[in-house]
Design brief:
Length: 193
């Protein structure tokens, strides 16, 4: 009876390990190597309503490929995005409108000039550097309240996502499979004794 329970337990473990390995290998074949560009704005210098001078615009855009070096003007279509101003967060899941245009990059492929607007209803988050009139700015509106900083918008940074992560998971699954096979051999030897 004990041998039969051990055999059944190993059988369930083997099935679970096989299913996990298959899922990881499948996910490795469909993984994208997205690139996240994060934006960090400077603190607002002009505020009304609930905004404070410690609020600022922060956010990210997720692109399926990296921006090229020294390129532009580019109009972007992010896989996803999210921007916050301290009072509200507007993302691709709740935005009623979004535009990302006039992006120019430096030799490292990081945006140095841009214009973006994301909005939900009567509220929005905007940032513009470069070809802006009358000046560069970050600004947010939340109903009637406004927070802004003129002539001093923030900066972008690139954060590549690790495309090799599924390969690591697959390798760890393989090591687990080897460990399981070793336990199986020990169990078989104990059952034969």
């Amino acid at each position: 009876m004990k041998t039969r329970l051990l055999s059944l337990r190993l059988s369930l473990t083997a099935r679970l390990l096989l299913a996990t390995t298959a899922a990881l290998l499948l996910s490795a074949s469909i993984t994208r190597a997205d690139v996240i560009y994060t934006y960090t704005g400077n603190d607002f210098t002009s505020v009304s309503g609930s905004y404070t001078t410690t609020d600022s615009i922060t956010g990210y855009i997720d692109l399926s490929t990296a921006l090229g070096a020294t390129s532009g003007p580019l109009t972007l279509t992010p896989v996803s995005f999210s921007f916050s101003d301290g009072l509200q967060t507007i993302s691709n899941t709740n935005a009623t409108a979004s535009v990302f245009y006039d992006f120019y990059t430096n030799a490292s492929g990081v945006p140095i000039s841009w214009a973006l607007l994301v909005e939900i209803g009567g509220s929005d988050v905007e940032s513009c550097k470069g070809n802006c009139s009358p000046s560069d700015f970050d600004a947010s509106t939340n109903g009637m309240f406004i927070g802004s900083v003129n002539n001093d918008p923030g900066f972008w940074a690139e954060t590549p996502l690790p495309a090799a992560l599924p390969l690591l998971a697959g390798g760890l699954s393989f090591v687990g499979l080897l460990g399981w096979r070793g336990k199986r051999r020990v169990a078989a030897a104990l059952a034969a004794a």
